[in-house]
């Protein structure tokens, strides 16, 4: 295949403020090769196909609105210190319920013990080998009914915990068992004997609920509890004097309490994102070490803009867009599969960084990109990456059917803290690339 290669120096090719692509039509009319070596264009003079991988792609990190967590089936707990994104802290808030039956033990019932049982699933984020802590605090106020709680919300709780327990979030941990003070167990048993626990509201009036909090200096893992499991319960053990060898118990479950949410906080004060504080605010990757960030539960998304895209319409003649492929790589040294979102998704954005419609494929399905960790053809090193085929979108943008105001890239798991550290255009090792193929038809 007969190819003519044109090498452009991006600094030298700016005349009177015009971008590189504004001069492509002049370069395509000449077969002289500029003396300065820069970005590469490839033209197939037989078929008239043009390959462009030098389009300027701007990236920035955008802080978006928090997600609703009161509708989740999970509770999150833990603290993890990310060297790029700061300290991530997860707390949970819950109410207990009676399950539709009153608690009326025999008046002679004798207290034995009380324990909080928190079943987990396999989700872990962080270092599961380190010792971490669970502090159980008594709420000072109840969770409001018919209220949406977001990841940024909090509810007042007693500063001094009822108990603090150390543990490791190892994969074989299926239930965290937390013994609670005898004073709480005796309080509940006495209230039951006095016929004061006849409804969920009566229980809430006595015990509004708990806050589950990590240790202040923990740097370990965030794990997930199954809030809607019937095994997630406060279990009160007691017996009757006439049957000391027969253990009796009563469960007050989180599922029956039917109100819970978790809180996710990020302390970014010592990071390159320290000034990112307002919703829909953006920080360009030129200010964050040529990196852009995505972190679902903490509201970080990456905005992608191609400001000179429409200059392709100045090439002269009629061109058809054959393909537009967006390749994103995670920055080397951060490609830990356990931390990267499994898939990413794209939405239309406006100049104010508001989210619009999701991009779809030709079948109308939401367009996603799966995380891949494989050998890179560019570096021959194992590398994390995401790849999108964006031909329909950029075709519509070139026809001005959609505004060329950028795209917002986010995790498809917006309620968990997995993060992607993506290279921007100026990133030396892992630059973002948009590869465009056009064919001249006239």
UniProtKB/TrEMBL annotation:
It comes from the Bacteria. It comes from Hymenobacter mucosus. This is DUF4270 domain-containing protein. InterPro entries: DUF4270.
């Amino acid at each position: 295949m007969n190819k003519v290669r044109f090498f452009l120096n991006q600094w030298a090719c700016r005349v009177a403020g015009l971008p590189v692509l504004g001069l492509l039509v002049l370069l395509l009319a000449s077969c002289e090769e500029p003396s300065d070596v820069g970005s590469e264009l490839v033209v197939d003079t037989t078929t008239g196909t043009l390959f462009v991988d030098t389009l300027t792609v701007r990236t920035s990190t955008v802080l978006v609105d928090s997600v609703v967590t009161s509708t989740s089936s999970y509770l999150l707990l833990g603290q993890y210190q990310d060297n790029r994104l700061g300290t991530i802290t997860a707390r949970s808030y819950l109410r207990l319920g009676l399950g539709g039956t009153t608690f009326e033990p025999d008046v002679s019932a004798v207290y034995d013990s009380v324990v909080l049982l928190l079943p987990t699933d396999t989700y872990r984020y962080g270092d599961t080998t380190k010792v971490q802590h669970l502090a159980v605090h008594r709420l000072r106020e109840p969770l409001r009914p018919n209220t949406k709680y977001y990841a940024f919300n909090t509810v007042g709780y007693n500063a001094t915990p009822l108990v603090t327990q150390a543990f490791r979030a190892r994969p074989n941990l299926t239930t965290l068992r937390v013994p609670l003070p005898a004073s709480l167990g005796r309080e509940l048993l006495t209230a039951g004997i006095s016929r004061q626990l006849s409804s969920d509201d009566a229980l809430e009036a006595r015990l509004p609920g708990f806050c589950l909090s990590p240790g202040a200096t923990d740097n370990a893992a965030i794990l997930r509890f199954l809030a809607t499991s019937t095994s997630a319960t406060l279990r009160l053990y007691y017996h009757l004097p006439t049957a000391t060898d027969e253990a009796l118990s009563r469960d007050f479950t989180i599922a029956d309490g039917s109100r819970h949410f978790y809180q996710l906080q990020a302390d970014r004060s010592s990071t390159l994102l320290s000034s990112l504080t307002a919703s829909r605010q953006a920080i360009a990757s030129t200010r964050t070490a040529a990196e852009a960030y995505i972190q679902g539960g903490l509201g970080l998304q990456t905005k992608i803009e191609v400001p000179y895209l429409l200059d392709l319409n100045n090439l002269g003649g009629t061109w058809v867009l054959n393909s537009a492929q967006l390749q994103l790589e995670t920055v080397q040294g951060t490609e830990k599969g356990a931390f990267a979102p499994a898939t990413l998704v794209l939405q239309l954005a406006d100049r104010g960084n508001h989210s619009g419609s999701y991009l779809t494929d030709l079948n109308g399905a939401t367009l996603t990109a799966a995380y891949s960790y494989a050998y890179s053809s560019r570096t021959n090193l194992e590398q994390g990456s995401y790849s999108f085929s964006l031909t329909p979108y950029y075709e519509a943008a070139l026809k001005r059917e959609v505004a060329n105001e950028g795209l917002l890239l986010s995790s498809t798991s917006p309620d968990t803290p997995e993060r992607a550290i993506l290279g921007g255009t100026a990133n030396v090792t892992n630059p973002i690339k948009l590869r465009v193929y056009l064919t001249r038809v006239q």
